[in-house]
Amino acid sequence: MESNPNYVDNVYTEIVQRLSKKQKFSYGVGHVLNDICASMWFSYLLVFFHFVLGFDPVLSGMLMLIGQVADAFATPFVGLQSDRIDDFWLCRYGKRKTWHLTGTICVVLSFPFIFSKCIHCGDASQWSQLVYYSAFVIIFQIGWASVQISHLALIPDLTPTEHERTELTAIRYTFTVFSNVFVYIIVWAILHLTSDTSSTSQIGPHDANKFFQVVMIGLTVGIISSGVFHIFVKEIPHSTSGPITINHRSVSSFFNDQKFYLVAGVYMTTRLFVNIAQICVPLYLHESLKMPATALAVIPLIMYLSSLKMSLIIERINTKLGRKIAYLIGFIQGASACIWIFFGEGQSFTNYFIYPCSLLLGAGGSVMLVTSLGITADLIGKNTQSGAFVYGAMSFTDKMANGVAILLIQYLRCPADCTFYYRNVVSLVCGGSAVLGLIMILCIKNNESDNQDTSEYRGIERDTTYDSEISTPTSAIGVNFN
């Protein structure tokens, strides 16, 4: 049989070791601390400062804006620094894990002060207290950004295959859902079981210590989870030698790529949908539906249980149907919930229909969010050295948009009792964000060469003790925007 030298050149193969289940699990819990804090931040910050501490709604929104802006500027900085190859002794621990550890310390030391009364300044003016809380918020958000970006950037570093990247993203989101469910269960338990007042009473100043208890329980679980991550996840050191070479795409090339802006738009609008729902649904329940304090934990809990169920099949939806169809499915669910909220009123809606509505809202958000993270990983492709920058840029747009949106929402709030204000916010802002996200993901063109590379992907059965894949260098990372 005559050999073909050109065939040998074109089908040069690489052995890629699959991640073990322990590694996947350990990676997934690495963001639990952030998820727990984010759940408290988005779901209860405005509730705590407005209804418990008695802050003016605009000042409450301003505090969240300060945090979002700090996060927005920290993310690209952390992204650029995390992408650098540095011989500094601490970075030998792993440049991603070093930033993750630094951020974890900042979060743990600052977050408890945000959900507690101002120490020795409880009688000071609200503007003075705003300065006090802003200092801790900025430290917290810088730490949160460090953990988020380094954790996301590890996905393309840990595995070059699109299937495993999607799986890691889904696992990561599953633990995000678990974390949120955990927070809402703890909030419900503490508000319900330790309440000295009627079960129908609403949130008030008497609940300040209860929020602090929730934070401390959450931080304990988060610290343990971060420890598991740092012990069992091994970051692969970057080297220009070896069978797998690093593909470094310059920052300027991303800014010249139209796809970069479309992906950023999809990510931003999807995050806007998820975060505005998470922030404003408790306010909607409190002011529009006049539901008791425990409902502010029960309804978000139902949303995230729905998200959990969807997170178990999101990977399959993306793999079988493609990114665009998966996002469309999430859009239909989320948009249906927004329409239902807009037209829903009366005792029957408050007592019964709000629950299936929250199921749709949670399911739609989870599908769209994981899909948007998937197309972000696709954009990075084999340029893993630019991964943190890309995630940082995506997060910058997300944080700025959310911060400005919340400040405007609080600023435009009626001074008097506006029963339907937050109903309109949830339905119109979230619904509009979903529409924009769908339009932009449909505008992302398929890359035929990438699809061809993906089709060339070949797998082989190996000993289960060392499960691996064999693929061409160009197809080791499939970039597919379908």
TrEMBL record:
Keywords: Membrane, Transmembrane, Transmembrane helix
GO molecular function: symporter activity
Transmembrane segments annotated in the record for this chain: 98-115, 130-149, 170-191, 211-233, 291-313, 325-343, 349-376, 388-409, 421-444
Keyword Repeat applies: no
Highest taxon listed in the record's lineage: Eukaryota
Any Pfam family hit: MFS_2
Annotated GO CC locations: plasma membrane
GO biological process, one term: carbohydrate transport
Family: Belongs to the major facilitator superfamily.
Protein name, as recorded: Major facilitator superfamily domain-containing protein 12-like
Organism annotation: Aphidius gifuensis (Parasitoid wasp)
